[in-house]
Amino acid sequence: MSSIDAAREALTAAVDTLVALDFEALEPPDRFTVLEWMETEQRRLRAVSHTGVAQLEQFEGCPPVGIALADVLRISRKEANRRIRNAEQLAPRTTLTGEPLPPQLPETSTAWHDGQLDGEHLRVIQKFFGDLPDHVPPVEIEKAEQSLAQHAVNLRPDQLEKLAHRLALHLNPDGTFSDEDRARKRGFVWCGGQQVDGMSVGRLVADPELRSMLDAWFAKFAAPGMCNPADQTPTTTPTEDVAQRDGRSHGQRQHDALTALVRGQLGDPKLGQHNGLPVTVIVTATLQDLQAKTGHAVTASGILLPIPDVIRMATHAYHYLALFNGVNGQPLWLGRTKRIASPDQRIMLYAKDRGCTRPGCDAPGYRCEVHHVDEWAKGGLTNIDTLTLACPPDHRLLEQGWKTRKLANGDTEWIPPPQLPLTAGTNDFHHPERLLGPTDGATQAASTPLPPGSGRHPR
């Protein structure tokens, strides 16, 4: 550590000098020269950082490496996982017997550590190999990697992307892809969280089977007049008049057809249960908002639902109303002598915690387990005021030196092991209202599982 400390002090001093640099004192051509030099050194530092990332490993009490790296560096988990993936491809490897192996992308790794490549260059090269079919011979793949790395030194990322596209067409001129090639690309993800207007954007890459089934479903249920939430009584057998006055676009009709498909499945007993509850939507809302028909409710997945949508979704649902007012209401105070939390208690935890309570974790309630703050094995009771939510990876941390405790306001504080460079704290991610400070008056909450009904479709 002494040599690292000396290097750190020298680097900090050098950066302090650069911070004080007066660019106006330089000639215009020299400004470009200095910026190019600074960019190269930043890239070299990034490469050294990736070398360190490649050596990270999980130890007692440490969360999974990706989560720990994100928390310590205060970067997103997506960025942390990207750096880990980059390090795996650009760092030297060893076999199970300890024999050294070159990086997965050897030529790219050399240019990367020389400071010649930016992260965008690297992503272009990674995408090229990710899209390449399996039938391309290894020798051609090796030549392609060398060529792309050599050209990347002299090209911008957008120029390199065009070159990579031409090379991909050369290696696979017939556009031949196997079932395995297609299966590797399939997936559906939400592109970030909800937008400010409450809408969500997703990206679907469908294999031929899913596409054929969706097309068959849309042919009937996305036809004009079908499943229209704007109708007083949405129908699956529209008359010609209903179909003609349907003003929705083709995309809107397909959206509403998907809504009908999913809503028809949720709550079906054949689906079984998830964490002891029906597979359905669980919503938490304040009584004041329900009575005023304004504001938003929160689902167990962390999605904000306008109150009018909640009321419409619950028109024909069987309600479970729980008052969230301290220890007075039966659903709030459900003491149990058994270890497993009751369904009512889990609903109240969805209402109270909304998701994993470890600081920085964004896992919603649907993906969480119930944790006893007072350990069950040591005599703790399954009472609502000693339970909290924790996602499975964080739940396992409590067996590795992490501790939790309930604060006076009912929040759960997580305390890391002393060897981790993290501080104790609570999680406000699932409660953005706390970021604005305390509000006046007590808040009551209602939790309503919403099985499917025959009422109107939510917009």
Automatic annotation (TrEMBL):
Organism whose genome encodes this protein: Mycolicibacterium sarraceniae
Annotated ranges, domain HNH nuclease: 344-396
Family: Belongs to the Rv1128c/1148c/1588c/1702c/1945/3466 family.
Compositional bias per record (Basic and acidic residues), positions renumbered to this chain: 242-252
Segment forming the signal sequence: none
Superkingdom classification of source: Bacteria
Gene Ontology MF, one: nucleic acid binding
Xref: InterPro entries: DUF222, HNH, HNH_nuc
Name by which UniProt lists this protein: HNH nuclease domain-containing protein
Chain segments carrying region Disordered: 231-252, 409-459
